[in-house]
Amino acid sequence: MNMEFHRKLPIPKEIKEQYPVTEEMAKTKEQRDDEIRKVFTGESDKFILVIGPCSADREDAVIDYIHRLRTVQDKVEDKIIIIPRIYTNKPRTTGAGYKGMLHQPDPHNKPDMIKGVIAIRQLHMRALAETGFGCADEMLYPENYRYLSDLLSYVAVGARSVENQNHRLTSSGLDIPVGMKNPTSGDLSVMMNAIYAAQHGHTFIYRGWEVTSKGNPYTHSILRGSVNKHGQSMPNYHYEDLIRLFEMYSASELVNPAVIIDTNHSNSGKQYLEQIRISKDVMHTRRCSKDLCKMVKGLMIESYIEDGCQKITDDAVYGKSITDPCIGWEKTERLIYEIAEGI
User: 42 vs 29, 37, 94, CA distance in Å?
Assistant: First the structure.
């Protein structure tokens, strides 16, 4: 075997005992989770914004950003539920580059997975304790979900993971919303099959255990655009795309039909400022159709304190993405208020 085993990681139970969630934090999260779940069941007509940095790179800037979101949330709470993105696992197209805080709690140092596990738990704990936000993270490693299972309010399964059996079965055992992205090929049937698998119960192996899941009725779709054989981005957030998805849901046996529109990635061609226009376009589409208004539950937006992105350097700009470019805070704040006015 051409790999070296360094050390065994602490199990999630041990990490949770060392860094426990307080009773007050657990109560806050459960109330928030219930509010979010009601959006996906149709009991609430509030609009969801899964918003934040492409990847969480440093604790101070991420917490600063989330405190800013808290101020805005209080002003739009009658219409919008904000779920901050704290993405601590960063999938890479080629496998090269910064893989997120789980791997490198300090982007300037070598990977250290034990420090990473502790760093991501502490970051999510601070967000919940200081702002009352249960946040979103991407499920890059299904077996690592348990390290944050008492902190997360939303999970996304990425375009490269959505066809993976382990991601689907793990999602079936969660009791919070899980968004399944369409694959980079754009094949919506792959995404719909993933939702079907996650909405049903299974018996499978998880962290060395034989486990049984009951199915997750809050599993839904995320449209993030696709890439054709020529490497060109093909958006799938337009009216016609959403009608097609509505028809697929209508012909299926899936419960709680819902979609979140990812305004970046292949929907924007990674032209991050396009997220503003795309967000407004989706809001207009919702107003054109009662069916789509009911199905389109929210947006996913990549946003941070400063516009754009940068390379990892010793003099890096505070609050500027070191992975994909994001819209800065001033544009973000203005956009959230405009979305609220358009609901």
Answer: 20, 9, 39
Pairing mode of beta strands 135-138, 80-84:
unpaired
CA Rg value for the chain: 19
Q: What is the DSSP string of 5-50?
A: ---PPPPHHHHHHHSPPPHHHHHHHHHHHHHHHHHHHTS---EEEE
Q: How far apart are CA 153 and CA 38, in angstroms?
A: 13
Q: Which two tokens stand for residue 231?
A: 């490497």
DSSP letter assigned to residue 177:
-
Spatial distance between the Cα atoms of 234 and 236, rounded to a whole number of angstroms: 7
**Burial of residue 27 (number of CB atoms within 10 Å: 0-12, 13-18, 19+):** exposed
Crossing angle for the helix pair 239-250 and 188-199, nearest 10 degrees? 40
Does CATH number 1.10.10.60 belong to domain 12-341? Answer: no
The position carrying tokens 């009725």 is 217
pLDDT at 99: 87
Per-10-residue mean pLDDT of the chain, 343 residues long, equals 88 98 98 98 98 96 98 98 95 74 92 96 98 97 96 97 98 98 97 98 97 98 97 97 98 98 97 98 98 98 98 94 96 98 94
∠ CA(74), CA(258), CA(84), 5° rounding? 35
Tokens found for residue 268:
């924007």
Domain residue spans of the chain: 12-341
Q: Would the pTM of this model clear 0.85, i.e. be above it?
A: yes
Beta bridge partners of 136: 85, 154
> CA 227, CA 267: separation in Å to the nearest integer?
10
Which helix (H) or strand (E) segment is 293 a member of? helix 290-295
Specify the pairing of strand 209-212 against strand 203-206.
Answer: antiparallel
265 in helix, strand or coil?
A: helix
Q: What are phi and psi of 154, to 5 degrees?
A: -160, 140
| Listed residue (258, 220, 259, 257) closest to 237, CA to CA | 259
Cα dihedral 144, 147, 149, 154, rounded to 10, equals: -60
Q: How far apart are CA 185 and CA 286, in angstroms?
A: 26
pLDDT for position 51:
98
